[in-house]
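Minimal example, chain plus PXL.
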Amino acid sequence: MRKTQKKIALINDFSGFGRCSLTVSIPIISAMGIQCCPLPTAVLSNHTGYEQYFFDDYTQSMIPYYTQWEHLGLQFDGIYTGFLGSYEQVEIVLDFIRRFARPDTVVIVDPVMGDDGKTYDTLTPRLCRELVRLAQRADVLTPNVTEACILAGVPYRADLCSLQELQALAETLSGQKEKDIIITGVEQNGEIGTFIRRRSGDCEYFSQPLAGPRRAGTGDVFASVVAADAVCGRDLRNSVHKAAAFVADGIRLSEELQIPPQDGIAFEMLLSRLIPENAP
Ligand code: PXL
């Protein structure tokens, strides 16, 4: 059979420091053998978890930017969306999907909204409502517990971790369109868990010991591994285990290197682990 390479559009912000969004997704997904085509939503000096940051909203540039891609006749095997800089960007992303997705294109939506029960600075109520709409379009949805609660319209609780509650949350999120839902960052008894609800309705939960304190960009590292595997049609369960193990190893290494939690996961030295065994 002829060898081909998959291509993914990454709709996310470019933060120059702090290891999140594009600076995490591009190296990880590239190491997994996929061609990455970034469409920036904003340019930041550093992510919004720091006290101060420069923020340049890219809303007005996105359509002219991808119109050129249309002239090039581009189509994508995957479209992965993360941090959006304004509520208007949701309609832009939905337009992008209409223009660049084939029927078999996998749409991965990481609904970047907040963590630990708190929302990020840039999440306005309007953006929040629009992200609920975008989440409905996903084939693969990767919220953390905070984001899952916001999307489902239920109050966040740090101890929201029973299987019944997670199942009910995921069921609400599955909405009208079948999708795989992965709820990350379920913390209980010193473990960190992941709840999976497949598009078939089958559910699964697994957890592993906490590798260290929470870090910035963890969700981006996790979703990048899952997105790369989803585009390649790999089994969801395996890729979720792979992503969780990679995040845990990254957290352990970052602790060893004494990297401040705000500066993200030092994944760079671990990238070679993600290169597929059958790589040329
Ligand atoms: O990791 C999520 C994320 C992405 N992009 C920006 C952020 C954050 C979290 O703080 O600030 C700009």
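Helices lie at 22-31, 59-71, 88-100, 125-136, 145-152, 163-174, 218-231, 236-256. The chain has a mean pLDDT of 96.
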